[in-house]
Mitochondrial carrier-like protein
Amino acid sequence: MPTSKETEVLWSDIASRILINVVSHPIEYAKVLIQVGYEPIPPKPTVTLFGKPALKLPNAFTYIKYIKRIDGFTGCYRGLVPKLCSYTVSTIAYDKTLEYIQSNTNAVQNNDNEDEEDESVRRKKCMYEIIRDVISRAVAIVMSHPLEVVSLRMMAQFVGRETKYSGVFSSILEIYKENGILGYYAGLIPRLIGSAAVIVLAGISTYAINTYIIQEPAMKTYTASTMKRHTHIICTILHIIFKNYPLVFYGRKFNIFTDIVRNHRLVAGLPPHMPIYKNWMHCWSHLSSHNQLKRGSSLLWRYYTGPQMLLNGKLIPIMGDNFYQPSL
């Protein structure tokens, strides 16, 4: 059973993270719209750092100004409530699952003196911790994913100005009427894969640092604690270094646009804004062919990579109804 101090720390972490989510939500909102390929502001001619001509797309802050101009200040927080609920459910589910696994397994015994452990024992402990964290995170994602779907559908409504997803409970009922139970878990597989990849990479990195770089036992404990408490920062770094950003991107995208949820009839998820994808692999293949796997990974320096033409010495985008989606 968790102590009162552990419970207090848990809710303190939840409260601090909720505050961060509230402050950063407009940026997250803009990022979601960028990820689904909605570009209402035309690109402008510019040059890259290396002097190469390019077409610059608006950064996230310009995008936020556009949202505010259309929907006002409160419009920048569309989808925030289910997002906060999703994070709270995810955090509690992760903590409880981790606690259950630790209290019901004796697979690995902690040893305070790690210097006395041989390489095989340390490797076994690392594998145990990775598997434990992967299971706990998977349970957290499965439990919170329906609320994530609600949040993303609310935000995607900006494209077509729909209002069918408004409240949390009414949106849950709407999804069930349209798609059944499966509608709550659109995009789950790529999200689970991306999460597992991050945990494995973080675990291996911790093991490598503690084995080959840090020698002091106290510092090794601090390394593991830091990696665990600042996973969201480490995840971002690992996404950039190991190029697994697309997996997280697809987890978001498929919440709205796979064949499981294509009956939702949101403008953002239908042609000409978005093709109808058969499954997440079809989506991956299509976006890869158009060099869009990392769409939304950069929020400050964004360049248009669609069809272009040179007119009077200037690059001009060949724009259809959507910058990012040429016809299939």
In short: The domain at 4-37+63-109+118-240 is CATH 1.50.40.10 (Mitochondrial carrier fold). Confidence is low (pLDDT under 50) at residues 320-328.
